[in-house]
Amino acid sequence: MTSTFPDISLSTERLVLRPYDEADIPELVEMMNDDLVTAWTGVPQPYTELSAREFVTATAPGERTEGRGLVLAVTEFLTQRLVGTVHLHRTDWRIRATEVGYLTASWARGEGYASESVLAVVRWLFGTQGFERVELRTAADNTASQQVAQKIGCISEGVLRNAGIIRSRPEDEPHGRWAETRTDLLVWSLLPEDLDDADDAGDPSGHGSAGEGYETGYTAYPDYADYSASAQRR
């Protein structure tokens, strides 16, 4: 019998992480039509209301019910505005390991939301779900995503050469056609003892502290991108 994650909500000082619902569709469409989301992930472009509805009503809940992972909408506690997504996928129930991805809306970048939300999910996985390993994969040129991984205490494990695909436009055609190119992927991991060490050293979540600059990330969506990547602010 396939194991599944519970249908849960989590909260932090500033955020609520919960399942997506249909009321999120307009904000999801806006979030996913950002150029940086297009560049670092394989989500459909343009990202239409139909794409969002399929994700909210079928793809996201299917991740949980079919035992593959868990998709959580990240919202601001005070405004209930959609901040982003945290996505667990490639879950291996036998070894209690999963991969985490994340995405932050363009308006919310630079506030520490990516690290805060991912850290909340990781602590829940280790603290109540008995997981022993969480993995992240970041595009080699995506220093923003690498900074988030470092900030939450991840350990760099190595490089998967030529293992990912990103999208870009010609520098002299900022509104031209997107072209796909291959990239190396950096592999990061977290174990329960890594979080213990981070907690002993102080809270790594940052909460928008000066200099964090690149706190945006995005999740890997089923059938779109197979790696976690985060967007650099321009």
Q: What's the SSE blueprint?
A:
Elements: E1 10-11, E2 15-18, H1 25-32, H2 35-40, H3 49-65, E3 70-76, E4 82-92, E5 97-104, H4 113-128, E6 133-139, H5 143-151, E7 155-168, E8 179-190, H6 192-201
Parallel strand pairs: 5-6
Antiparallel strand pairs: 1-2, 2-3, 3-4, 4-5, 6-8, 7-8
What is the overall number of helices?
A: 6
Strand content: 25-35%
Low-confidence stretches: 201-234
* Overall pLDDT score: 85
Strand order of the largest sheet: 1-2-3-4-5-6-8-7
From the alpha-carbon coordinates, what is the Rg to the nearest angstrom?
Answer: 17 Å
Descriptors:
single chain; 234 residues; 8-stranded mixed β-sheet; 8 strands; disordered C terminus
Structure at a glance:
With 234 residues, the chain is α+β, with helices and mostly antiparallel strands. It is built from 6 helices and 8 strands. The chain has an 8-stranded mixed sheet with strand order 1-2-3-4-5-6-8-7, sandwiched between helices.
Task: Walk me through this protein's architecture.
An 8-stranded mixed sheet has the order 1-2-3-4-5-6-8-7, sandwiched between helices. It starts with 9 loop residues before the first strand and ends in a 33-residue tail after the last helix. It has helices at residues 25-32, 35-40, 49-65, 113-128, 143-151, 192-201; strands spanning 10-11, 15-18, 70-76, 82-92, 97-104, 133-139, 155-168, 179-190. The relative contact order is 0.20. The protein has 234 residues and is of the alpha+beta class.
